[in-house]
C-alpha cells in the first residue's frame, strides 16, 4: 500500500510569516486609528484634495495607456526576439524599478529640460515639458513601464508557440497571429501588468515632484498633496493617505480576480472554434 505523499510546509514557517503580516499591517492599522473620522468627508473633498485626486486619476490613466502602447511591443521583442545585447536591453528596461525616484526625476529633467538632451528641439517646437501636466505623465510612465514589460515577458516565456505555428501553417500573417493569438493569450498578464502600472503611477511622488513640481491643478497629484498637507494639516494628510491606500488595495484586488482565466479560456475557445471551421478537410 502506497503511503500518501506529504504536502504542506513546516509549522515553524508560521512565525516569520506572522511577523511579516504584522510588519505590513501595522502601519496600515496606524493610519486607520489616526483618521479624524467625524471630518473625514470634509478632509478628502476639499478643493485642493479633489483637484489632486482628479489630476492623479487622469494622469495615471494616460501614463497607463503609454505603458501599454510601449510596453507590449517591448515585452514581445524581448521574449521572442533574438538580437545582440538582448540581456543588456532587458536589464535597462528594469532600471526604473531600482532607481531612486528622485534620480528618475533628475534623469527625465536632464532629458527634456531646457538644457537637456531634447530641450532645444522641444523649445523650437514650442513644447515646454518640465513643470507641466505632460511632465507628470512622463514621470509616471517612466516608473510604471517595467511592470507591464515584466508581466508580459514572463507570460510569453511560459506560453508555447504551438498555436502560432498552426496559424502560420494556415497562411496567417505575423500581424494576424499577433492580434488573434499572441495578445489574447496574454490577456491575464496584460490585465495584471496594466493594473499594477496604474497603481504605481497613482502613487508616484519623487520623480513627479522633481521634473514637474507641485502646482495645484497642473502637477500636484494626490501623493504631492499628502506631502503638502502633512505640514499644513496633518489630519487631511492622514485622511488622504487612507484614501490612497484604499484605492491601491482595490486596484490590487482587481488584478488578482480569477475571472481573468475564464476570459482567457473564452478567447482561446473562440479562436479554436474559428480555426476548426476554417481548417481544410483532411485528405
From TrEMBL:
Entries under PROSITE patterns matching the protein: ABC_TM1
Family: Belongs to the binding-protein-dependent transport system permease family. CysTW subfamily.
Subunit and interaction comment: The complex is composed of two ATP-binding proteins (CysA), two transmembrane proteins (CysT and CysW) and a solute-binding protein (CysP).
Subcellular localization(s) per the UniProt record: Cell membrane; Membrane
Gene3D superfamilies: MetI-like (1.10.3720.10)
Keywords from the UniProt entry: Cell membrane, Membrane, Molybdenum, Sulfate transport, Transmembrane, Transmembrane helix, Transport
Organism from which the protein derives: Gryllotalpicola koreensis
Principal location: membrane
Function field: Part of the ABC transporter complex CysAWTP (TC 3.A.1.6.1) involved in sulfate/thiosulfate import. Probably responsible for the translocation of the substrate across the membrane.
Presence of the UniProt keyword Membrane in the record: yes
Membrane topology: Multi-pass membrane protein
Name of this protein: Molybdenum transport system permease
Spans through the membrane: 12-35, 55-79, 91-113, 133-156, 177-199, 236-255
Annotated ranges, domain ABC transmembrane type-1: 53-255
Keyword Cell membrane: yes
Amino acid at each position: 500500500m502506497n503511503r500518501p505523499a506529504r504536502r504542506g510546509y513546516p509549522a515553524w514557517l508560521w512565525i516569520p510569516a506572522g511577523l511579516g503580516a504584522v510588519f505590513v499591517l501595522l502601519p496600515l492599522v496606524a493610519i486607520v486609528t489616526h483618521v479624524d473620522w467625524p471630518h473625514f468627508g470634509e478632509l478628502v473633498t476639499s478643493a485642493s484634495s479633489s483637484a489632486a485626486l482628479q489630476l492623479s486619476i487622469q494622469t495615471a490613466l494616460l501614463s497607463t495607456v503609454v505603458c501599454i502602447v510601449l510596453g507590449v511591443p517591448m515585452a514581445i521583442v524581448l521574449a521572442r526576439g533574438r538580437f545582440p545585447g538582448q540581456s543588456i536591453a532587458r536589464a535597462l528596461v528594469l532600471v526604473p524599478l531600482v532607481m531612486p525616484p528622485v534620480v528618475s526625476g533628475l534623469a527625465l529633467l536632464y532629458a527634456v529640460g531646457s538644457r537637456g538632451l531634447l530641450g532645444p528641439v522641444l523649445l523650437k517646437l514650442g513644447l515646454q515639458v518640465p513643470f507641466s501636466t505632460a511632465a507628470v505623465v512622463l514621470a509616471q510612465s517612466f516608473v510604471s513601464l517595467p511592470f507591464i514589460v515584466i508581466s508580459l515577458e514572463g507570460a510569453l516565456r511560459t506560453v508555447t508557440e504551438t498555436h502560432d505555428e498552426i496559424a502560420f501553417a494556415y497562411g496567417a500573417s505575423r500581424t494576424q497571429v499577433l492580434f488573434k493569438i499572441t495578445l489574447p493569450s496574454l490577456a491575464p498578464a496584460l490585465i495584471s501588468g496594466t493594473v499594477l502600472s496604474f497603481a504605481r503611477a497613482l502613487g508616484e511622488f519623487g520623480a513627479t515632484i522633481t521634473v514637474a513640481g507641485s502646482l495645484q491643478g497642473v502637477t500636484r497629484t494626490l501623493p504631492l498633496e499628502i506631502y503638502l498637507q502633512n505640514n499644513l494639516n496633518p489630519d487631511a494628510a492622514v485622511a488622504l493617505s487612507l484614501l490612497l491606500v484604499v484605492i491601491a488595495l482595490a486596484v490590487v484586488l482587481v488584478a488578482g480576480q480569477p475571472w481573468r482565466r475564464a476570459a482567457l479560456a473564452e478567447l482561446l475557445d473562440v479562436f479554436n472554434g474559428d480555426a476548426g471551421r476554417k481548417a481544410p478537410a483532411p485528405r
